[in-house]
Amino acid sequence: MSVRSDSLWRYIPCSLNNNSIGPEGGRAIGAALEKNATLTTLSLDSNNIGADGGRAIGAALEKNATLTT
What we know:
69 residues, mainly alpha, two-stranded parallel sheet, 3 helices, globular
């Protein structure tokens, strides 16, 4: 049986906790999440993303059916 390597990425969580991402980074993550087709888990604790970054991520999550946690 052959397993495509890109299918394995679906099950690897992405933790960006405590990285001082800030609002600009939050907007960039939002833009990336709009195109995301593989990542299912993302953690962004303690990054000072702010309201603008949070809104961008929230808007992306309305369009993203892949991210579940």
